[in-house]
Amino acid sequence: QVQLQESGPGLVKPSETLSLTCTVSGGSIRSFYWSWIRQPPGKGLECIGYIYHSGSTNYNPSLKSRVSISVDTSKNQFSLKLYSVTAADTAVYYCARLLPIVGTTTHFDYWGQGTLVTVSS
Amino acid sequence: SYVLTQPPSVSVAPGQTARITCGGNNTGSKTVHWYQQKPGQAPVLVVYDDSDRPSGIPERLSGSNSGNTATLTISRVEAGDEAEYFCQVWDRSSDHPVFGGGTRLTVL
After folding, report:
1. pLDDT digits (tens, 9 = 90+) for A14-35
2. Which of A51, A80, A84, B7 stands 20 to 30 A from A16 (CA)?
3. CB atoms within 10 A of CB A34
4. How close are the terminal C-alpha atoms of chain A, in Å?
5. Angstrom distance (rounded) from CA B5 to CA B22
6. What sign results for the dihedral spanned by CA atoms B45, A43, B38, A23?
7. B chain contacts of residue A105, beta-carbon cutoff 8 Å
């Protein structure tokens, strides 16, 4: 059974960088896409971006200028950096596995439990 | 960009059938996936590829997709079905997922 676990600071100051890591266990990080999704309190889901084990990435256009996702296959981990954060970036951040696109579709089959990151001074 | 619209809330009595809709432009031409999110928990995939269920998801949950609306149907609703439900499609133009706004299912 694949399991994902987010880790990182729960509090980040405005204008600083949010950094989170997702550790994958129970399976290899190879052959899949790995994503970061966030959910502001009381709101819906937003995909921040995703990365293939080879390192190729695709970011949400609305966040692209502030986001970086990287992967460390030796540690079975992938990471998120979100720069110049504001209060609007306060959310629960999830990591999730994204299946390879088949035809024209794909979906997320495994999710981490999520971690709340609050942006506040 | 593609938009999916869900009703904010649906209420149903135990034992009845709940239908949660997900509307979009020609949704029937896309493949819809559904997630269940209970309070304080991560989303769980309950239906994928319009109508398939992952192992462990009861047959009471089923999906359909036609025209401009996809529907998640929960038969014989139980208290444990109370949750937020999100639909999702894949936008090939951006190669990014699109999520519906979510529907809160309340079991009366």
Report:
1. 999 999 999 999 999 988 999 9
2. A51
3. 23
4. 39
5. 6
6. positive
7. 30-31, 33, 49, 89-90
